[in-house]
Amino acid sequence: MSAPLDGTLSGAVSRTLSGIAARVAAVPGMERWIGPDDGAVVAQGASLAALAWPGRARWHLPSPVRAAGCAALVGGGGVGIAAGRTHGAKLTPRVEPPEGAELFTGGMYAWSRNPIYAGLLVAGGGWAVLRRRPEPMLAWVGLLAALTTKVRHEEVRLRERFGDDYEAYRRRTPRFFGLPRPAHPIQRSV
Fold first, then answer.
1. Residues near 45 by beta carbon (within 8 Å), at least 6 away in sequence
2. 74 with 134: CB under 8 angstroms?
3. Percent of the chain with pLDDT over 70
4. With contact defined as beta carbons under 8 Å apart, do 126 and 68 qualify?
5. 20 to 30 Å CA-CA from 141: which of 39, 52, 91, 127?
6. 127, 112, 49: which is closest to 79 by C-alpha?
């Protein structure tokens, strides 16, 4: 994990989140769920919890927007759950891949290196819209930032664990969304 910049707000937030992660990781039985360097996991959990910010709706949603929000919630949730099932008992929110984990590159993982997180982002975005309050929308922005940070740390560990196989996969597969890129780009002749 890269060291936070001392004296900056992001550095202070990073140190605080890492401190919380270290305290939670010290609790017996929590090592499967969080490690001492998993500040991004704490931010992810806080952002997901903040999506449920209490309060009444503040504005009306037109029917097409409500339908799109529902579709995002259900579709994103389905993608996240289906992708999570790929991991079976090895599924963990930790940044460090579990011992004996394999590199998934097929199925949903051929379309996104992080389909669980992509599903969380789509479902969380749908939920934030349906809540009709500014706080859940801000929580979604926090979730995006937390997952982007978490993925960057995971990518370092995956590169260390799987080497060239991961690097080839990373080059051809989008981080969250998009169409897979060809393994060998087409060369144009001039």
1. 93
2. no
3. 87
4. yes
5. 91
6. 112
Domains and CATH numbers, the chain: 9-172 (1.20.120.1630)
Q: How confident is the model over 92-132, as pLDDT tens digits?
A: 888 888 888 899 999 999 999 999 999 999 999 999 999 99
**Buried/exposed code over 64-90 (b: 16+ C-beta within 10 A; e: otherwise):** eeeebbeebbeebbebbeebeebeeee
Length of the chain: 190
The pLDDT confidence band at residue 181, using thresholds 50, 70 and 90, is: confident
pLDDT band at 189 (very low <50, low <70, confident <90, very high): low
What predicted TM-score, i.e. pTM, was given to this entire model? 0.82
In angstroms, the CA 43 to CA 17 distance is 7
Q: What is the pLDDT of residue 1?
A: 44
d(CA 123, CA 90): 23
Residue carrying structure tokens 């002749």: 189
In 3D, which of 47, 72, 50 has the Cα closest to residue 61?
A: 72
